[in-house]
Amino acid sequence: MRAMRAALIAAALASAALAAQQPPASPVALTADQIENPTTESWPTYNGDYSGRRYSPLLKINTGNVKNLSLAWIYDLPAGGTIKATPLQVGGVLYFTTPNHVYAVEARTGRELWHFNYSRSRGGIQIGNRGVAILNDTVYFVTTDCNLVALDIKTGSEKWAKEFCSLEMMYYGSIAPVVVKDKLILGPSGDDLDVPAYLDARSPETGDLIWRWYVTPQKPGDPGLESWPNLDMAKHGGGMTWQPITYDPELNLIYVTTGNPQPVIAHANRKGANLYTASIVALNADTGKMVWYFQASPHDTHDWDATQTAVIFDGTINGQRRKLIAQASRNGKFFVLDRTDGKAVVSSEYIKTNWSLGHDDQGVPIPNPAKNPQVAGALVTPNQGGATNWFPPSFSPQSGLFYVNATRAFSVWYLYDVSENPMGWGGTDRGGYTEQPQLKAIDYKTGDVRWSIPRYGGNSGLLTTAGNLLFGSAAGGIGAYNATTGEPLWNARVGSSVTNGPITYQLDGLQYVIAGAGNRLVAFVLNQ
């Protein structure tokens, strides 16, 4: 520990010395075309590009030299908190968030340029914030009290704020907005009250609403109403959209992943599949109209939202090139779909589960009623934390593997509210057992787990590169693994496991790797 502290202090001093030698970076504007066609010198949106793959074509750092990575700089949050946001890097400046705070720091040195504190927040849950969006000269983020806020990219001064959800109805804001052409795409968080979820497209100039898509039916005749016992239950059915979307510009489809239905655990008054909760849904980007859906957890009773990133890639199935989309869902299932129509190509599981009776002819899991929460308890895996959670996965077109941090855990699910009309949370899980968490690589063509290695750090997001590397958490810090075999190749202790999704970019011919680790942002570089 003493050696690690000395190394961090030395790195901080070196960073300060480096910062003193260079002129301050000057924030620059970002166009919609630069977002759609990102360069390796930037990381301009939550997943680096619209696909959600979190794959970089950079290969300066590779399996042969990753052992020589050096700590470049450290930035400790002046206001505290945990970095769960993925930083955006534009013009040599990193922009990232914690709840109600936005930071801009130099990407080469870690020197702070500005810090915005949304000090007038009226409340809301501060569980985390996933980051910002940038378009032209404006930085956008959401606050815990349900405001979409626009900041000047050069100074961090506030331009405007627009309410997009109701704090009084116990929604809150945590999502990283995503720019799609001339729209900001974002949704609310929260499932403490039985309220409807939605996805908004809003104006980048004013924050005004352009279109809204509700996850559950809101009026007679809406599609999916037949999967609820009545309109009243559907209108209060939840399904929060709190993860950043992915997008296919060629098909002009937004892929939104939706949360669990409400009431959350007790379910006597919402018989049916409860569409379109716990689903992957394709929407027309211009109109917000639904094109197709695939439900990962019909009639969920275990808080297994299906908001995990739906990753876009093209692949070969039975000798034919296909436009695909894949998700490692919180319920332990792995799905590969045709992203033009939502038809299942592969339905499997990446941990062994016990809650379903297999899949139907559409590839949709069939829930086992015996594993629903009960007054006497039901032993189920996964537990409420899920086989994975919000942390972004990665897909490498080089290896053809889908990577996810996974956990197999058992717990006993209890039902507290046995009435015919439960509300809110009418049960939960307790106790149980957790196996050693794993880092897994899944073959998208078959759904088979190609390799699985023990994960000794906390859960984290993942990053793959053309250097055949996979970056993620390791014990007390960040690690790099051979993307083909899973062999651990390098790790560095930085005081905490990775708490966000790592990113990479190249500046001045040097490739950097950036990760959040608790209350600090750390940067590594290959000085070769």
CA-atom Rg in angstroms: 22 Å
Beta-strand content estimate: 35-45%
Decide which structural class fits the backbone: mainly beta
Largest sheet: 5 strands, mixed
What sort of overall outline do the alpha carbons produce when their principal axes are compared? Answer: globular
Output the strand order for the largest sheet: 1-32-33-34-35
Terminal residue distance: 28 Å
Helical stretch tally: 3
Query: How many beta-strand runs?
Result: 38
Catalogue the unreliable spans: none
Q: What is the typical, i.e. mean, pLDDT?
A: 95
State the helical fraction: under 10%
Model description:
A five-stranded mixed beta sheet has the order 1-32-33-34-35, with no helix packed on it. The protein has a four-stranded antiparallel beta sheet with strand order 2-38-37-36. A hairpin with a 2-residue loop joins strand 36 (503-507) and strand 37 (510-517). It contains three helices and 38 strands. The protein is mainly β and 528 residues long. The protein is 6% helix and 38% strand.
